[in-house]
Amino acid sequence: MYYTPPSLAESVVGVAIQWAPPGAVFLEVGVGEGALFRLLPSPKRGVEVRRRPERGIPGVEYGTDVMKWSPPASWKGRDVVVVMNPPFNRQVEILNRCARMQCRSLRVVWIAGLNVRHWDTEDKIDPLMHLFNEWLVPPGQSVFETKAGGEKRIRTVVQVWERKEEERRLWKDVRFRPPVGFSSSKCADANVVVTQVNSRCQVGAA
To answer: What are the pLDDT digits (tens) for 22-32?
Structure first.
């Protein structure tokens, strides 16, 4: 479990407020110690799988698994903005659960591991969810406090997803065509290489 650093929490909540429709209700999935939840404006609700601690945060439903949780019936006519820093190994699963929530409109603002930018990972996200915007988190803000009290540096991205009625085009269905004047050739004979870059070592190797 990695807790959201205060500076990153402030930036993420600022993004959520900026892109929230007027009168939207905010929902945080996985409240943890409340770094994000405490900054969110009302109306808001939180869901946390852990049992309620001695000093629980008002407005948070403790001991609740979001995979089994359903929003109040009144939310069917509301605009909902989900804000979260989910476990990175379950991030797609949790986002897809949120995508099926019954509400008038849905936006998700989350902190995600960089692997969510891989095409095959992105294709696993509910096709009705569309990527609205994203920002790479500066290295200085990607230092997370662990449950054991230490620190873990993890490169992350902040993304805004929006649910729409039409499905987005998946990467697996994209067929890239070479520019005019270029022709296909074996990799060993190629002069132009197109790749998704994940780290400096790849750039150096290129």
So the answer is: 999 999 999 99
